[in-house]
Amino acid sequence: RLLIIDFGSQVTQLIARRLREQNVFCEILPYQIVTDDVLAEMAPKAVILSGGPDSVTREGSPRAPESLWTMGIPVLGICYGQQVMMEQLGGKVLGGKNTGGGGTAEFGRAYVTPTEERIDLLAGWFLGEKEQAWMSHGDHVAKLAPGFKVYGTSPNAPFAVTADLERNFYAVQFHPEVHHTPNGPTLFENFVRLAGFTGDWTMEAYKDIAIEKIREQVGDKQVICALSGGVDSSVAAALLHEAVGDQLTCVFVDHGLLRLNEADEVVAMFRDHMNLKVIHADEVDLFLGELEGQSDPETKRKIIGRLFIDVFQKYANEIEGAEFLAQGTLYPDVIESVSFSGGPSVTIKSHHNVGGLPEKMGLKLVEPLRELFKDEVRALGHELGLPSSFIGRHPFPGPGLAIRCPGEITREKLEILRKADAVYIDQIRRHGLYDEIWQAFVAILPVRTVGVMGDGRTYDFACALRAVTSVDGMTADYYPFSHEFLGETATRIINEVPGINRVTYDITSKPPGTIEWE
Ligand code: XMP
User: Fold this and answer.
1) Could you list the active site residues?
2) Are 127 and 111 contacting, i.e. CB atoms less than 8 angstroms apart?
3) The pTM is what?
4) Which of 403, 509, 516 to mutate to test the pocket of ligand 1 (most atoms within 8 A of CB)?
5) ipTM above 0.95, yes or no
6) Where along the chain do its domains lie?
7) pLDDT in tens, 236-247
8) Fold for domain 410-505?
9) Given the CA of residue 395, which atom of ligand 1 is nearest to it?
């Protein structure tokens, strides 16, 4: 395996991501625990030193274990990792402005130019005369360690790419792992090839290791999990189930704000098809009762959030001896914060639905997906045998249809909304557009309009169709359906869904709109 020593960079996980893309097994360990002994025991085939916020010029700042330099394995230092390498091997690093060293800081886009001599690490990296790279450093290397030569320079980093080919040590000042170093993956590919990795690591192997880790953490204790039917909680539950079997109990809260047939489908799949212990908490009356007469978006959200926690707690309390709460937190949900008093540490953005619950209930967290990105979670779900139609589903918000029903929520409106949404999604699937769209749904508007059907006058609800493209839900653009598609869909909804006589298409992007209507 490949070991990544983490010096606390915000983007260390991206290094892991780039390596997984090359089908290479890697592990991230914080620098504090990588002692000479740990290193010897792990016997990694190669090591990558991450970036980090500290300055190697500061006394007591983090270092790599001394034995790393004599193991005879390839090492790649990135940013702070480069500086650690230079400092420990006899070079010189100067502090930037922040540290009083007077050096030149460099943040953002830079262009690296190759020297005449090309090395394997850079094979295929320079597509033109220079290559874009992302810099983020205050300090800089002022003198190379013995044995090193320069192979790439940038205006503010004369030692942008350096290497000691004899010892297979490589060091770059920029961050090849980030998106803004467009050709960065090539560099990682070259590094793992020259380190002798064959790229035979798979999601199946990842699954086995994740299962081992869960077993180690959970032991023979009971685990509970809030199953929402969304991709993340579903994959987390399926993985937990493989790891600890019947020690896992899932609670599926039906708040009456789910899509057509959703509750039955989710419960049937997990309980009957996958043999998980699932408690189907039918609390429709409770939620809809408390929501009655409420039309303010924030009030509605708060009611749902509060009831969800109450209900989950009630059912969880019935599960004897539960010590762990499983959550499908993904890497993008994890905000890495670094405090050098205690070393790199991680704080969690609490999940919408169960935020605050673990502390309140004295539960420990199991978050088996926290190293993964959405597409990797889908791949893992696939590996766990979840059907593709399920894994590829559009995101669905915790408060469900409540936020697609502006104004007061009534059972009548919800029923109409469910039917209209089902027709719309069916249209999208029939036209083969589902996977091109990040999220699509119908919102029922709090307004009735006049129409004419047959010879009669109608006075029914209007609805809005929403479909957006997005990478992460933070920004979004409306999907450019053809007029033909829109016309056909409007006709189908009005014909097939009693209670709707007018269909509109929402063409607002985010910002200024949000994806949901509330
Ligand atoms: P907005 O409407 O804020 O939505 O543009 C961005 C993405 O987040 C989803 N969303 C939620 N998901 N709990 C969730 O689990 C929520 O309270 C919530 N609100 C919005 C929304 O569906 C979209 O994918």
Assistant:
1) 79, 175, 177
2) no
3) 0.76
4) 516
5) yes
6) 2-194, 203-391, 410-505
7) 999 999 999 999
8) GMP Synthetase; Chain A, domain 3 (3.30.300)
9) 24
